[in-house]
User: Fold this.
Amino acid sequence: MFTAAGFAKTWEYVSLFKEGLICTVSMSFLTVVFGFVLALMLAIMRLSNFRPFRALGLTKDGRLRDGGPLLALSRFNPLDFLATAYVEILRSTPVMVQVFVIYYVVLGNVDLPNFKLFGMIRFDRFFPGVVALSMNSGAYLCEIIRAGIQSIDGGQSEAARSLGLSSTQTMRHIILPQAIRNILPPIANEFVVIIKESSVCWTIGVQEIMYAVSATKGATYRIAEPLVIATLLYFCLCFPTSKIIAYFERRMSRGSKR
Amino acid sequence: MAANANSLIRVTDLKKHYNKGAIKALDGVTVDINRGDVMVVIGPSGSGKSTFLRSLNLMEEPTDGSIVFGGVDITKKKVMNDEGKMVKLDIDLHRRKMGMVFQHFNLFPHMTILENMTLAPIQVKHVPKAEAEEKALALLDRVGLKDRANAYPIQLSGGQKQRVAIVRALAMEPEVMLFDEPTSALDPEMVGEVLDVMKELAHEGMTMVVVTHEMGFAREVGNRVLFMADGKLVEEGSPEEIFDHPQHHRLQDFLSKVL
Ligand SMILES: Nc1ncnc2c1ncn2[C@@H]1O[C@H](COP(=O)(O)OP(=O)(O)OP(=O)(O)O)[C@@H](O)[C@H]1O
Ligand SMILES: [Mg+2]
Assistant:
């Protein structure tokens, strides 16, 4: 299975693995950043109180209806509906399918600029990969953010509103500062998840770690040795990161129990 | 109904239904709350006391009925402004005139006591920070907690937390204070210190609506007692009338259990 000669041969292609490492890390980092921005927008849509048909829920003399389809319609929030649909679709389909759809269908006829990031990573492959992964992790991060916000006791917002704060002020001064404590650790964990998931992007030719494996295999006819290197790289990225997150998570929860 | 010059909140036929009317948490409550009243609301569990109190500042949206506060029916979505135009009712404007104290204190855990107290005056009333802090410290001094101004809520006992919650509401200079079982979550030895603060507040003439199981407080401090059952106002009167001469059999039953 493993031979010294095999490792020696594989080692000739070590620069591919260096590239792969840089590509995997930068792709995962960008994905968390864009995914977070997307997730924040989705979470705001899901928690919004946008009800364009609100007026239908009132009777002629301005009272709330007791029930019926008009009351249901008055509570319909199209923003929430769209965001929910997006989240559910993205979470119920494989990330591999999403990567293919973005690369071959959505961006299939788009001429992406043909330059190389850091002088080695092909942008026309890298970009669709980041888009697909960001859209995917946006859906998961949205649920993390939403859960973080909803985990704040309802009494907090009641107390704030009873003091005369508006719903926006309540969100900004009371809910978000408390929610961020719950949200940060799972977001950091999502970074670890993306490092691993990003490996599917080799299928569209993004030069990340798995791409280095397949390229080395093609050149050397060795598979076990490149895989050992890839495994080590992924483990060395993910294991320490999750340990560091767990450490900060413990420290933060100690802070709140002061 | 004759207009009462002293009336602060007039509640008329207030209803709150859940599940399309299957649950009638409030089933037509009519009552006038006058300036300076210390109105104590008693009744068995599930009788609608909290719902009544929370409807007063629209924490619950009533199904029917009206609440006139400072001349405005706050249950209406639209109101006439000074120029005679119909505009959207700004409920935040009315809420800041009604202080509310909760069973579980609901202090903001990520803020110091002082920050808890100055947040709303600064953000809502745009009081300068220094002025808001000075006022907050004076209020804290009144309840003997001035030296805890920079502590976090988690560092206080239950009784201290509730005293802070009361002065936090007072910092907005409300016209009426609403209390929902303010001592029910406290260890018995801390009930007294909170009731003392409320008693003092009553003596200063603050209008108060208090939901409580503390019958001693109701009798001693209240000037009116409401007894609720099944979402209805069953009996109303002075503490003597309610406790010494209860008329309705539901009230007699209730008192025989709690006294
Ligand atoms: N969100 C809700 N959905 C359905 N029913 C509700 C809701 N809130 C309250 N109720 C019902 O309304 C009734 C009145 O409740 P409320 O909390 O006002 O009673 P209470 O007198 O404050 O009782 P307690 O002494 O236990 O606090 C109860 O039967 C309760 O189950
Ligand atoms: Mg209650």
